[in-house]
Amino acid sequence: MTDRFSPTDPTGIETVLDARTRRIGSWGELQEVLLEDAWNPRMLRHRSHHLFRGHSRADVPLSSGLSRHDGRQVVLEKHLLRNFKKYARSHLEPNEHEPSNFWHWIALAQHHGLPTRLLDWTYSPLIAAHFACWDFQEFDRDGAIWMVDSHRAHDLLSDNLRGLLRAQGAHVFTDEMLSEEIASFEELSAPQRNTAGQVLFFEPPSLSARIVNQYACFSVQIGEAGGLDTWLCDNPNIWQKVVIPAELKWEIRDKLDQSNITERVLFPGLDGLCAWLSRQYYPRPPQE
């Protein structure tokens, strides 16, 4: 694949991004693109293999919280997780069980905003569209939805990890399944695991109604943490980026609201209610 590189694009990612980016022109086209190839002839059901992630700005790269800010916190990952686990216990609800394994702990940390190597995804294309069109301060910028075929991503994993899925007849991992093969941060980040294509997807425990309502799933890199640029560049046929033009955001937003895909549903509680009301009553600027 050396022909993808150029002096102005030394990593090749911009070339691959251009080839795998699709700009939609209508609400109808957006739905068609997001649910292409959803028909499963074996099941005789429409069941897409894709996971989705929405961004308010199309120019934002696909990076975990840990790898943002030039990756300055990557070397502190172990310390972030260790101290979260040390101090979080006193904040668990009285009826809340302490996490039983490493994956439960890191999912809990991600859920509450700690920079981790995890990245949030959803099974729902409309929920991803919500996150691409929810920030009214970014309505003058193109948004984007990333979609990744999780089945084909898992075909690139090691034999041991693929064997875990086969043994359970599953297509994505759970925290219990992963703890059988990778039980600690040290095992997750071990240099010998730093092989190409090691990105997997797992369903977090039902930590809150927010996790459940957002139909959530997490991705995680095995081995060294960082941006997903190299993985995207090396595996261009299992993902695509769908760009939502700024001029379509108001229409898509209104139709999502009509479908009850709102902050009030996705963030149960007063915070979600206030976010929904703030956006719902934000006046649309006069059209040219």
Structure description:
It is built from 14 helices and 10 strands. The protein has one domain. The strands form 3 sheets. The protein has a 4-stranded mixed β-sheet. Strands 5-9-8-7 form a 4-stranded mixed β-sheet. The N terminus is likely disordered. The chain is of the alpha+beta class and 288 residues long.
Order of helices and strands: HEHEEEHHEHEHHEHHEHEHEHHH
The amount of beta strand, in percent, is 5-15%
Unreliable stretches covering 5 or more consecutive residues: 1-5
Q: Distance between termini?
A: 46 Å
Biggest sheet, in brief?
A: 4 strands, mixed
Arithmetic mean pLDDT: 90
Structural class: alpha+beta
Fraction of residues in helix:
25-40%
Instruction: Supply the number of structural domains.
Output: 1
List the strand order in the largest sheet. Answer: 1-10-6-4
Rg over CA atoms: 19 Å
**Count of beta strands:** 10
Helix count? 14
Shape descriptor reads globular
Question: Mind sketching the topology for me?
Answer:
Blueprint: H1 13-19, E1 21-23, H2 27-34, E2 39-40, E3 45-46, E4 50-55, H3 77-88, H4 102-111, E5 119-122, H5 125-132, E6 143-149, H6 150-154, H7 159-168, E7 173-174, H8 175-181, H9 185-188, E8 199-203, H10 209-213, E9 216-221, H11 229-234, E10 239-244, H12 249-258, H13 263-266, H14 270-280
Parallel strand pairs: 1-10, 7-8
Antiparallel strand pairs: 2-3, 4-6, 5-9, 6-10, 8-9
